[in-house]
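User: I want to check something. If I give you two sequences, will you return the structure for each one separately, not as a complex?

Assistant: Yes, each is folded on its own. Here is the first sequence with its structure:
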Amino acid sequence: MKVNYLYNSSFKIETKNHVLILDYYNDSVEGGERNSSRGVIGIEDLETNKEMLVFSSHSHGDHFNKLIFNWAEINPYIKYILSSDIKAENAAADITKISVYEELQIKDVYIKAYGSTDIGISFLIKVDGITIFHAGDLNWWDWYDVSDEDNKKMEKMFKEEVAKLRGEAIDAAFFPVDSRLKKSYALGPDYLIKELAPKIFIPMHFREDFAVTKEFADKNRDLYTKVFEITHRGEKFELTTDNDRL
């Protein structure tokens, strides 16, 4: 599995037979080539012989951009899997809407929508023998400027949703590590790792605050789960059974 960090919660994931793009929204890059190695999806990414699936977990502007439908003009075989809260009409695109706890089978790819602690959904995806979980905006959002009562409700909601994922053997979890939560930034990711023990953990929802990914990776060096540090936009990870236990 090859993974490029695009921006915020967006990644390009390439497996043996498939290319997945998740929660793409930032299509801007300064000068030079346009490709996933620079954090955007360009023509060379779209002109693939592999099956391409594009996912959007919800309608927030930092997770969805309707320009993704323009990609169908370059690759008419792209399939779009969108949370049902997204209002999207595009006759040229092959769009499937999915709601919480619904399941899809798109050829040999299995998809199940789980819940969020904000709007929309999270995705469990089984593709080419790999199980991927992309959290969308599912997190233990423990904000320093809201009431203890609201934060307790959030904790309960988050833990109940994670419990629904127990029993899934997750190879790669993509999950928020968001420094805006200040001292509480690790509550959600720590709990998810403890409860679900994914083989690898890739942080997201930090935009360009790469330092928080290093801090989180450094404090979790000794876990069974391998936690990745991300250092720049477009960074590529090549994950194999030998070096990263996929």
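And separately, the second sequence with its own structure:
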Amino acid sequence: MSMKLTLYKYIVNEIWPTFFASLSVSVFIIVATRMLSIMELIVNRGVHAGHVGRMLVYLIPDIVMFALPAVSLMAIVVAFLRLSADSEIISLKSCGISLYQMLPPVMVLSFLALLITLLVGIIAVPWGNRSFKDVLFQIAESKADLGIKERIFCEPFNGVVFYVTSYSARDRDMKDVFVVDRRDTKITNTIIAEEGKILSYPQQRIITLHFLRGTISTVDNNLASARSIKFDVYDMNIGLKDIISALESRKKAPKELSVNELIKQIDTSPKGELKHNEMMIELLEKFTIPLAVFLMGIIGVPLGVQIRARGRSAGIGISLVVFLIYYMCLVGMRSICETGNVSPTFGMWIPDIFLFICCIYLLKRVANERSINFLSVFFSKMRRQSSG
């Protein structure tokens, strides 16, 4: 028993440093890809650095949820690749320790990764998405307060130009208002009003510009038609997409909902409709992705043993290929399930079924000292290309 515990501890110590290093690198790379749009907020839009920092923090749960399947697979592949390359796997087998007897520590670590992914998906991802939208709304409010200047043409929101003769930042009251709204690509609205007021609705994340006693003129952008309407009261809504559309579009409403909220939405929406399918997909992904993390970890054992002395880069490459195949399958099934051609209740489990079949196939072949066919073909092609 002490010998097995020593072996298990040795395998765990091989896995966990690579796991955390891979996770850190993955998070850094994905955040770095978003830094261009993030820096644009600071440089061009005058957003406070504190808001930007909070936005980056709120992005992390989604990034971790996305990266964990690949990280779990990569860490275990690299660990067993190192053991195999140094002939330690052969030594263990000569001592009567089979591949299956090496699985318990991997299964425990993979199960812990499953639990982490489950908690991140159920708790952290909805929190991160809600908080991200809240920060965007706070930015919108500050842009309204700081962007509107008396007797100066200004554009506090994308496509909305203001000119006011008097503005009270405390009461958010405007006098003698002139507004040009170009958010619609087909028409331009020009609003002239005696008074105006900025109203905020944090729950709906909408800012409403409330105008009193004025005229709204609508002109087609091709100048084909025009019309003018007098009003006593007119409300113009500013949503998150009018503030930072590139960042707003990265999220869908279902990702902001908790499990209980998703279940309520599913119960109240007719089965087969797009909304019902989207909610069902989001709910099921909170469980299918953690299971994929567990299965990816198990698959890493036969892959790492089979690659042997091909090098760590080969292990990372094979891991990324397997993850890419899984991710493409996941995205494809999500699209098919949204349309209703396949029920989400069944379709969202297909990527995990694929991983489970691969797991059983790879374990049996490697445990019986048989090569994995697609790896043999892959490496033979690589050798021919390098020799040519």
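Because they were folded independently, the notes below concern the second chain alone. Residues 159-242 form one domain. The beta strands are 154-157, 160-168, 173-181, 187-201, 206-220, 226-238.
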